[in-house]
Amino acid sequence: MMTALLDSWFTRHERARIFPFVGFILLLALEPWLAAALTWLGAGAEPTYLLRSVCALLLLLYFRRDYLELRVTPTFNQALAALLAGWLVFLLWIIPYPTWLGGHDGRIVAAMPMQSSADVFWLMCRWSGSALVVPVIEELFWRAYLMRRLDSADFMSVVPATVTAYAIAVSSVLFAVEHQLWLAGLLAGLVYAWLYRRFQVLWVSILAHVTTNAVLGLWVVYGGHWQYW
User: Fold this and answer.
1) Of 40, 104, 136, 181, which one has the fewest beta carbons inside 10 Å?
2) What is the DSSP string of 189-218?
3) Confidence class of residue 8 from pLDDT cuts 50, 70 and 90?
4) Using an 8 Å Cβ cutoff, are 196 and 202 in contact?
5) Averaged pLDDT, 140-151
6) Residue 116: helix, strand or coil by DSSP?
7) What domain count does the chain have?
8) Backbone angles phi and psi of 90, in degrees to 5
9) Residues of the domain holding 73
10) pTM score, two decimals?
């Protein structure tokens, strides 16, 4: 019955691109309650990010045969363009924006502890989830699905090179709303969308996103800029 209900709402291709992202966001919204429950069970609040990442990974594995976009791998030049774009977005992200543009209000954000091996493990879970899992689920949702869906209900038939400026703009604005640094998020969304439209290889957008998040995570940890996490 549940399968029939889902089929009436979403196609298999839609579910494959929506569910990993929505599941991750849903668990993020439930994080205070999850942390409280895990603490009550004696596990502490640290596993919450790992839980989100594992759930997203399981959904990605479940739908793995549906990701036709991921069967095309980038060339060396495309990968190089992705790396450069990822660094560009990182630099755009760390600009000291004023608060009215989504910048931080100056409040001190507590650093993640790094005293024990367990602390380092949870820190690595946070970094690897942000750098390796989030880019995949977000690019599948925002670029592979929503951006093309804005142009046609049959989004799988939309060639990335033909995506309209309207679809790029709207999907990038919605991507920005997802982030506190909304202007940086908007610029990032435009860059990732342009990469997909220009090269027509989703891995290029994913690799750029991976680069941004990986470098940002290192900058947060080694520079003490915890407000970006």
Assistant:
1) 40
2) HHHHHHHHHHH--HHHHHHHHHHHHHHHHH
3) low
4) yes
5) 98
6) coil
7) 1
8) -60, -45
9) 2-228
10) 0.94
